[in-house]
Amino acid sequence: MNVIEINRLTKMYGKSRGITDVSFSVEEGEIFGFIGPNGAGKSTTIRLLLSLIYPTSGSATIFGKDVVKFAPEIKKEIGYLPSEVFYYDNMKVIDLLKYSASFYKKDCTKRITELAEVMELDLTKKIDDLSLGNKKKVGIVQGLLHEPKLIILDEPTSGLDPLMQQRFFDLLEKENQKGATILFSSHILSEVQRLCDRVAIIKDGAIVQVEKISELKQNNYKKFKIETVLPLSGDYFEMPGVNQLEVKGTTTSFIFRGDINTVMQKVSTVEIANLWVEEPDLEEIFMHFYQREE
Ligand SMILES: Nc1ncnc2c1ncn2[C@@H]1O[C@H](COP(=O)(O)OP(=O)(O)OP(=O)(O)O)[C@@H](O)[C@H]1O
User: Fold this and answer.
1) Nearest Cα to Cα of residue 208 among 94, 294, 131
2) If you take atom 7 of ligand 1, which residue's CA is the nearest one?
3) What's the whole-model pTM score?
4) d(CA 53, CA 31)
5) ipTM score over 0.85, yes or no
6) Which residue has the least CA distance to atom 3 on ligand 1?
7) Domains observed in the chain
């Protein structure tokens, strides 16, 4: 079953583009990554899902229900962490969290204490006195305190130190094991590689690719670095499947996707000093998606 289904969602901010024709779905129980550079349209998509803004065209459903028509009902089952958190600074952390919990028909007191302990958040402090990272933790606890079936996180780790990021990821994995579906946006690719089952890649407001992390990595991408005895012309390895071609003196490097024999045939016609063929990391594979249309 799909927990989220997005169907040709478009959002224009006046004349400027938010997102265009975005479609993808997130299955129940998945940890789904939403990846793209700044301004690509991640927050816009997420805000549309939460009905904080409304689409210009297209539609989306969560738990099979239209996100605009059933917004209040759906929101009770969602934990949302916005990319930027704003609070009434004068409140104490515990008061804010109790206030948030009052919107749900369950006692969240124990859960708040547990989450605060894991995230090392001092509940007695005034929000005003918290650092940016600690404010982020308040948002995390706020998003998870009602044990939502769907967790939507917009750039959740910005501001958290590496130890807290780790704690937070462990927390998300636990929630996922208990049955929560998770959608989270990021421009940090290594996060996605570790945590997610599938990813959607967004660029300039449009989805470039939706793929399983395991398939992305097994997609026969190879990273070539070739050192030749004599310098090659800049376009010697320009051929279908070659990306990010770089020639520096006698060293040529590129990412290749396709039948490796075609590269090897070209390699065999020049005198080689050294050759490396490696698995590219996800960052390098994503660069390919980012650059494809340029
Ligand atoms: N309220 C707004 N008014 C006008 N344009 C907007 C508004 N919000 C977003 N945009 C534009 O929509 C596009 C997508 O922005 P969005 O914030 O969704 O991207 P993002 O992928 O979340 O990036 P970031 O990681 O920087 O938040 C950008 O070009 C942005 O300038």
Assistant:
1) 294
2) 13
3) 0.81
4) 24
5) yes
6) 13
7) 2-215 (3.40.50.300), 219-291 (3.30.70)
